Amino acid sequence: MIPVWLQAGFWGLFSGGALLIGAAIGYRVELSKRRIAGIMAFGAGVLISALCFELMEEAFKEGGLRAATIGFAAGAIVYSAANWGLSFYGAKHRKRSHGQAPAGDDAGGSGAAIAVGALLDGIPESIAIGLSMLAGAGVSVVTVAAIFISNIPEGLSSSAGMKRSGRSAGFIFGIWAAIALISGLAALAGYSVFDSFSHETRAATTGTAAGAILAMIADTMLPEAFEGAHNLSGLITAAGFLCAFALSMLGS
Q1: 171 or 32, higher pLDDT
Q2: For position 156, what pLDDT does the model report?
């Protein structure tokens, strides 16, 4: 039987691997803005559902309301502050796939900032995957699916921008492969490191990941979804939420 810590690392690597899929699509294929916006809206709905019925509910059960809310607020504040700083270096629109990515000389510097931004998004998400396995019920399929879906447009957008700036395929895919690997390690740490911590600490950490993810949805996913899908964005987001909610209830 595969050790649980190794399973956690695998699922983190799997969800982070969506960045490579997105990068490959962005490097070779030009997808319509509306199609990418639809994917983003659906992924946002799935993530919001995962926050409500997987992460925050688990944090509350694990360590109570105080730990969960403190962690959630901390995650949202830290993510927003870091995202604000990265916006000055070209990573503000890192999940955008059309019209926002810089071209020419500016795209080279922003490519690095986008990669750092992907780490900022991916680490709390991956830690959340590992934490979700501490209860012994296996991985949260809803959480993994939501993270996987949201990572595809991020890899797509940034790889297209770096390609326009003259970056080689080896450079582009090397960056995303490294981030996918770090995502796997973060999920492994979420399970292995926090296993020995108190219930309150684990609850606060889960809340922190949830707060950071929700801030990420509002800052980077929903603007892209609305810009591309307009009036349909709300309906598609609701469909993603409902789909994830149904999966969560069926698995409980």
Answers
A1: 171
A2: 76
